[in-house]
Amino acid sequence: MELSMKITGARVIVTCPDRNFVTLRIETDAGIYGLGDGTLNGREMAVVAYLEEHVIPCLIGRDPFSTEDIWQYLYRGAYWRRGPVTMSAIGAVDVALWDIKGKALKTPVYNLLGGASRQGCLVYCHANGSDTASAIDSVKKHIDLGYLAVRAQAGVPGLSSSYGVPKGNKSYEPAERGLPAESLWSTEKYLRFAPRMFEEVRKAVGEEVHLLHDVHHRLTPIEAARLGKELEPYDLFWMEDPVPAELQEGFALIRSHTTTPIATGEVFNSLHDAHELIRNQWIDYLRMTIVHGGGITPLKKAADFAAVYHVKTGFHGATDLSPVTMAAALHLGLAINNFGIQEHMPHTDLTDRVFPHAYRFHAGYMYPGDEPGLGVDIDEALAGTLPYQRAYLPVARKLDGTLTDW
Ligand code: CS2
Ligand code: MG
User: Fold this and answer.
1) Quick check: pTM over 0.85?
2) Closest residue (by CA) to atom 4 of ligand 1?
3) What are the residues facing 184 on neighbouring strands?
4) What is the crossing angle of helices 323-335 and 296-308, to 10°?
5) Which of 19, 183, 191, 287 has the most crowded CB, counting CB atoms within 10 A?
6) 285: β partners
7) Distance (Å, rounded) from C-alpha 180 to C-alpha 72?
8) Cα dihedral sign, 345-245-211-313
């Protein structure tokens, strides 16, 4: 079967159905096109410029089947490697090429990654509340929706806003129009509150449901060690991003004090960001995403490396990752053996209309669908009516004004 194809064009589509998304569309001389997500929350236009000015000119005429060579060309060829902008741009190209491959071979992408290793991908959703009682209601609501795993976040008493808790009854979307919002943080208030919150949540929802929590990079290793220990009685599926992860050996200290499973990696752009964490088994779940990690090609390698050290995947799946990334994550997640869990923060109806897709949720699991390629598309006419709106993620300050991690 003659499969030689050439990339004939590529363009970037920026749209804002409730939040900004950057999508790369690569076209071929066979009339087959592929989509890739290049969305970097709060820095979207940097990736657009990187793609339009520097990457797209280098793609024309290349064979879209050469995913590995094109990946190496864009990574090594840039000379200036890694980093969120570069890797999101490379990720968009890589995913679009895997989409083209699947379409050209008339098979779902998971078949090109080893085939299905399970019926579906276990997912977790977000439950949150301004206080413990409303967080418990939200957890129960999601259990009723069929979720088997729920992330619980609640407002910390004495703090006007807390990570993961929406203002008013809007669905949680951290990036806001205008300049970055500033929120106040107190580790002391949080450390007193969080174990008590999980004591009540676990008592209210029973032992079956998996409970997860996102610390969102806000503690020091010894504070995280204390929290992990105090959460042990409530049998969490994981404690996520307990500390900023630049200092990988910081996790050794946490690990030496607690058996609460640890997840990290959503801000990672390369396996090198996680190498020591995995090699020393300081974490249990790798949260790298296909878009910010440089695509399916490097994420498959990261998952394979993690498997050697009993580390599973827990791919990031927040709403600032487009349905194109959700589709790609489900295809890779279905194929790899060391799949752990996939984050599922549902997009809005408008976003789902802009990005029609084959993946679906059923009884706690998600399924990528069996369409050729990734099974996701973009309605460019609708996308064109929803122009980009600059938005920023918040910043956080301690009560004494010190800038800290949001
Ligand atoms: C969060 C994200 O879902 C998560 O685990 O850490 O929602 C994160 O805050 C956003 O993706 C930032 O853009
Ligand atoms: Mg997180």
Assistant:
1) yes
2) 318
3) 397
4) 40
5) 287
6) 263, 312
7) 35
8) positive
